[in-house]
Description:
- The protein is mainly α.
- It has two domains: 1-79; 80-341.
- The protein is 69% helix and 0% strand.
- It has helices at 4-22, 27-49, 55-76, 81-110, 114-145, 163-185, 196-203, 215-226, 237-251, 255-266, 270-278, 291-313, 333-341.
- Helix 4 crosses helix 13.
- The mean pLDDT is 87.
- This is Exported protein.
- It comes from Oleiphilus messinensis.
Amino acid sequence: MYPERIRRTMQYAILLMISVLTGCSTQQLHNQGAAFLEGFVETSVTQHMLTLSDVDQSCQLGSSMGPVFFATHSITDAPPATLSLLYLLSANCSEQQAFEAEFRSLRALQDGRPTEAKDARTAQKRWLKLTAERRNLSFKYALEANNYPYDEASSSCPTFTSDQQEMVFLLGLLTGLQAIISDAGAEMRANVPRNIAAIAARASYCLDDQKWGGSPASIRSAIWVLLPGLNAENQDAWAILDASSKQSLNFGIRIPVALHATMAETSNNLPQLEKSLSYLQQEIQPNPDYSLLDAIALSHITAISDRIWTQAKGERTPFGRLGFLPDHVDEDANDEQLDDLL
């Protein structure tokens, strides 16, 4: 069951859609209803939603409500902050499907079923393409909501009037980076612009790193690992990722740990991968205002761990072993076999 505030919002959305589809109301009523719905969600529901820790429920909310808010945005032309968050959440749903397909492909390959492995890898790429598209939209809407003309190199930082605005901007930069990674896994079929990386790195300086638990610095340092040419001052990206990961444990949102692990896996850096996963051995208290963000970060780290365990042992991370690597890790073997098949 959805929490009461979210359930009520969905009821309002359904009533609004009925009035629009049946034509039983005037255009003025449509505008007022859409504006009320957007305002109610942004001021009340969003803050409540961020305190939840159910990643599956939140991603389903994003998938079901995203089309509704896309329609209301076309009516009100209000800043699309909520729309950005909904696309972020829905991208988690499609990415989970991509993970499941990937794990099926790995197990099928290990069991000597190459046709099934190839089919599952194709399904994975399709889900990654959708994930990249959703994340690209989340990035664009987040920057648009904060009046940040990301296509201009000399863009000045937004004037934030609330922590929620900053949070939407921060998550937009994160999803921009993730969109590039997802698109790479989909053979670039989502056509995510590669200049997003430079934009996100530059825009991350608009946010206070101390205030947001190391997340802004982790975003730009992750980009530097991915694209070293953007690291104009040759800063130690791994050292920054590690420092940000430690900082995030006290802040209670482990976005930097997730980025640390993602970049370590992407660059095949086993020592950094072990270091990033080791932070999961520490008990933390999730930030009560943003429990959902920590839960999403943890789900990303868990997926990385599950991939490693599946490659090595044919099974996901066993209970009680999150944060630990299996005894034998051969990160490239299965990928190379799949590449040969494809």
